[in-house]
Every structure is written in C-alpha cells, then in structure tokens.
Design a protein that fits this description.
single chain, mainly beta, Immunoglobulin-like, 2 domains, 1 helix, 48% strand
C-alpha cells in the first residue's frame, strides 16, 4: 500500500495569491489521488487542480479565497491499498494599495500580489510595464497535434500561449491519461520545447494528452487533446 512520507500540518496563503502544496508519498504506481475538504470531495476546476507524479502530488490553488479555508484530507491509492493525510488551509487578508495612473483619475485599488487578470485591461498594460504585477500564463495554443504513434510512444506538438502572464514562460508540463482511467499522469514536468515524445505507453491502450504552460507564478490551464489515440504501430491491426 502507499505511504504518506511528508505532508504539511497547516498551510497559509495570502488572499488572492496563487499557491501550491506538495505532498510526498511512496509505493508502487500507478496512483489515484482524491482530495476532500470538510468531508466533501474536491473536484478539479479552474480554481484548484492537482498533478500526480511518481512520488508526490502538487495541489495548485489559483487566487486563494476565504472560502477555501478548512480541513483537507488527501487519499493516495494504488492496487495494494491506500494511505491518507490531513492538513489545514488558512487564507489571510491582504492590504489594498493604490495604483496611480487610473484613466479615471482616481487611482485603482489592486490587491497586492493579485494576478493581472483581476485588473481592467487598460490598467494591466501599465502595471506590467512597471513590473508590479504578474500572474499565471494563458494555456498553450492548439490544436494539440499528435504524430509518430507507435505501440509505446507518441509525439505531441503545440504553440506558445498568447498571454505569458507578464512573466517569461519557463517550461511546459505534459500529461497523459488512458481513457479508461480518471487520473492524469505526468509525462514531463519540465519540457523546454514545443514538441515532446511521450514514452511508456501500453500497446493497445487509448490515450489523451494535455499540456500546461509554466511561469514563475505557477501553471496555466491545460490545452487538452480531444481525439484519443491508440498506441500501436501504424501498420498494426
């Protein structure tokens, strides 16, 4: 069965900041991870998502809110059993500060550390030039192209995001998922190119792929392929 090796007892994020929580475990994969808050299962969405690696999981929280506070329980499962751990999430208030240069002439309230998506577009340009505000990047541009499919590999390609969040894109995260499973598996956590060959596919398996852009603030929403592929030689049955 899996074993939780390291999990924080308490995590605190400033309100409206992006945050991530890293929890380590051991055991033999593949793993399935579930997250609960105050007894109710938490599903991935634009606000919260998690990425499963071979020996840890990262929970990403976008623009933390007071409503995110509570007691969380994470469950890690494999074919041999499961393990769980709990942590408490707290969200602290942030002081508002005035940003000069509002076209209306009154200044604008911007939460210190907020992402640029929270600010009016005509103010965003000024803040980015001043270097005072950066946020998460937009998703990579599609379509997500899949080529050179074999029984164990497939090559995927994409384009950079239209918006980098005001901070340079450092890398991309590539994930794969068998259509018969719900869990996404990391194929590469630090891809520097716009093309990647996914290894370790099971012959005859049906797969989907997705890619996220990463900057210093965190990870974008995914560009996800919509047409699954079957891992097999092109001349196979």
């Amino acid at each position: 069965a899996p074993k939780i090796e390291r999990c924080p007892n308490e995590v605190t994020f400033p309100e409206h900041d992006n945050g991530k929580i890293k929890i380590f475990y051991s055991g033999t994969g593949p793993f399935d991870v579930q997250l609960y808050k105050d007894g109710l299962e938490v599903k991935e969405d634009k606000h919260l998502k998690f990425t499963v690696f071979d020996d840890y999981v990262i929970i990403y929280l976008r623009e933390a809110l007071k409503t995110d506070e509570g007691k969380y329980k994470i469950i890690v499962k494999n074919d041999s059993g499961q393990a769980d751990a709990t942590f408490v999430l707290k969200v602290t208030g942030k002081k508002m500060k005035k940003i000069s240069g509002d076209p209306a002439g009154n200044g604008s309230n911007l939460i210190d550390g907020a992402s640029c998506e929270q600010v009016r577009p005509n103010l965003v340009r000024m803040i980015i030039r001043a270097g005072n505000c950066t946020g998460l990047p937009g998703p990579p541009q599609g379509p997500l192209e899949v080529s050179d499919i074999t029984q164990n590999t497939a090559t995927i390609a994409w384009r950079p995001p239209l918006f980098d969040g005001g901070s340079k894109i450092t890398n991309y995260v590539v994930e794969r998922k068998e259509t018969s499973h719900s869990q996404w598996i990391v194929a590469s956590s630090y891809c520097r190119e716009l093309v990647f060959t996914v290894q370790g596919l099971t012959e005859g398996g049906e797969y989907l792929f997705r890619v996220m852009a990463v900057n210093e603030n965190g990870q974008s929403q995914p560009l996800e392929g919509t047409n699954p592929i079957i891992a097999k030689l092109p001349y196979g049955n």
